[in-house]
């Protein structure tokens, strides 16, 4: 992992009327890192990610992604990142191959690049026989792995993954994380949100959000040591209880 910062976040805040969804969060993500953004459902993870992806304007604070400002350069951010949303993000009424061709075209890749990359992904995912099948007909696990492959189809600097393993079986979850490791080894920075605390163990560092705030940030090993907990589940429970007490 390099010491080059690829995401910087400084007191980033998002309010919806009187409700503060993201409350002055501050952290950095380094190039080539697998950065876990953990928290329970409703903790503010998706809202924070949408701001970093250029999809939602912050209320206050500062942030840059791949060197671009989230306020003034959100279109440049979108061109330099991959994004896999919490809801399945491919077109189910297009074939496997057509989805890849579509996204390659959206990102302005050449016909030759799209052809070569499509062939590579079909081989990698063992989907050559399904290339002309509608995506909607695939099992969920294959859909999720395909969606990740499409999110990094254009070889972005950073890929944002929002709850990518939700609803899939444990075997598929492990296979998905192997794909994440491979992408990171190829130089892509991974920013992944999850509410599965065991997935924190796969990350270089994790940030834990509770009620819109970053309550802890470190390596999984250091967090478990700091909170004298055998698992990340226990770390999270202690942080949640601490936040509840301080809010009383």
TrEMBL record:
Q: Which GO terms describe its molecular function?
A: ATP binding; ATP hydrolysis activity
Out of the domains of life, which is the source? Bacteria
Report the transmembrane regions from the record.
Answer: none
Start and end of every ABC transporter domain? 7-236
Pfam families per the record? ABC_tran
Look up keyword ATP-binding and say if it applies.
yes
Q: Which UniProt keywords apply?
A: ATP-binding, Nucleotide-binding
Q: Which PANTHER family does the protein's record reference?
A: ABC TRANSPORTER G FAMILY MEMBER 20 ISOFORM X1, ATP-BINDING CASSETTE, SUB-FAMILY H, MEMBER 1
What is the recorded name of this protein? ABC transporter ATP-binding protein
